[in-house]
Design a protein that fits this description.
CATH topology of the largest domain: TIM Barrel
Strand content: 15-25%
CATH superfamily of the largest domain: Dihydropteroate synthase-like
CATH class of the largest domain: Alpha Beta
Radius of gyration: 27 Å
């Protein structure tokens, strides 16, 4: 049974040092008991106490890693039901299905999609992480050949999909070092699949007809020493599958049922034959609470919205996305290129830089650290005024890259132009547009405005 907050407090050093980010050891103990803090945050806890507190400090939803290398996917680790309570920890992985019954051309096409369908947004590269390799031929040799091709042409994480342990073993012969997810262990095959998972140190998915059977399966795997588990509730109807996701999450978080405290997998590919409906199903389970979502295929027009939705939901709402302070070149700049200024709120940066690119006029963009705040918010907070901008302009090095001294500031902080002229007497301060959409027209005429 998980320890209570008072039981945890008795094992802490009781220094009230505050180095964990919480003012007192008692408050830290309560956060640990609620799954809203990590034991590693305490620098003075003893090794003996660490051992006793391991269960209490573990997240209610166990984190599980699938794959290795740069495309390894970590799922689970969740501590809350709702994002506003804290944040969601690990975004769900998206998988494309590839079967050994497909023609080589189709397999290659889907592998290309897995590799190439990626998008840049707010400084991040958005892409899928997994390939769900499915054995429909029931032939271990055919499945092994498919996995070989996947390994040769992709570094994505792999889900080996079969209820036949011999077929899973054939796939593992090729990719065991990549730590694939073994899908799936059922009541009928759990012993053999568990042996494979333990031997190769791979995570394993369980599937059953109801939640009680899932508890039996996860308990049995736990008893064999397997802890990296993913749950498939088995339902392929939208309503029932959604109810299962909510029930499993609530049981793990609210009722502390450890045998359900694992990430989940959703096979949207088996819930409909309609590609548009499949995308809608995927959106539902990105929000509630799928950790891995298997799609039948990827299309750019559906994958991109899913990736953006995932980004939005799994961005920490208490921490603004920020771009690194510095000088950014848009296009093939030279010493005569215009110089614009903006804040380091990522969305602002990408709107402004995107419009600068649309103008097709090579330009410099100076990004000032405003702690991730937008132009107006930063200005109102005193973080984007003449007294903070001027030292940045002097130190950033832009003066060494241009032969003019003209700075275009956002129209929303036009009031700072006078102060900037005093702080930067060698510079001419120009008032740029208030809206990003007006930047292309402004840059095309900036010389007539003194640029």
């Amino acid at each position: 049974m998980p320890l209570t907050g008072i039981e945890i407090f008795k094992l802490l050093p009781k220094t009230n040092c505050g180095e964990c980010g919480v003012p007192t050891c008692l408050a830290f103990a309560m956060a640990l008991a609620a799954g809203k803090a990590e034991l590693a945050a305490c620098p003075y806890v003893s090794d003996e106490a660490k051992e006793k507190l391991e269960e209490a400090s573990a997240p209610p939803i166990r984190p599980v890693t699938i794959g290795t290398g740069e495309r390894a996917l970590k799922v689970g680790g969740e501590t809350v039901l709702f994002r506003h309570e804290k944040r969601f920890e690990n975004p769900p992985g998206l998988a494309i299905t590839i079967s050994d019954s497909m023609e080589d051309a189709e397999i290659n096409s889907r592998l290309d999609k897995s590799n190439n369908l990626q998008y840049e947004r707010v400084g991040l590269t958005l892409k899928s992480e997994l390939i769900a390799a499915k054995c429909e031929s029931r032939d271990p040799a055919s499945f092994k050949s498919l996995i070989t091709k996947v390994k040769q042409k992709s570094n994505a994480g792999i889900i080996l999909m079969s209820e036949n342990p011999d077929i899973l073993a054939a796939g593992l012969e090729v990719c065991a070092e990549s730590k694939p997810l073994l899908y799936t262990a059922t009541i009928e095959n759990v012993d053999k699949v568990a042996a494979l998972a333990k031997d190769k140190s791979c995570p394993v998915a369980v599937k059953a007809e109801n939640i009680q059977e899932i508890i039996q399966l996860t308990t049995k795997l736990e008893q064999t020493g397997i802890k990296d588990i993913v749950i498939d509730s088995g339902n392929r109807k939208m309503k029932q599958a959604l109810e299962d996701q909510i029930s499993i999450r609530r049981a793990a978080l609210n009722n502390k049922i450890r045998s359900l405290g694992y990430p989940t997998i959703i096979l949207a590919s088996e819930m409909t034959d309609n590609p548009m409906m499949e995308t809608l199903i995927a959106t539902t389970f990105i929000a509630k609470y799928g950790s891995i979502i298997v799609m039948s295929d990827f299309q750019g027009e559906s994958l991109f919205p899913l990736l953006v939705l995932r980004l939005n939901i799994f961005t920490d709402p208490q921490r603004p996305l920020a771009t690194t302070e510095g000088i950014y070149k848009v296009g093939n700049t030279n010493e005569n290129s215009p110089v614009l200024l903006t804040s380091n709120f990522s969305l602002t940066y990408f709107i402004v830089s995107g419009e600068m690119e649309n103008s097709r006029i090579p330009s410099y963009l100076l990004v000032k650290d405003t702690e991730g705040l937008s132009v107006m918010t930063a200005w109102a907070a005193g973080k984007f005024g003449a007294d903070t901008i001027a030292p940045f302009i002097k130190k950033c090095g832009i003066a060494d890259q241009i032969n003019h001294r003209k700075l275009i500031i956002p129209g929303y902080i036009a009031i700072e132009s006078g102060g900037l002229e005093e702080e930067l007497p060698d510079w001419e301060i120009l008032i740029g547009p208030r809206e990003g959409a007006h930047i292309p027209a402004y840059l095309k005429t900036w010389k007539t405005q003194g640029g």
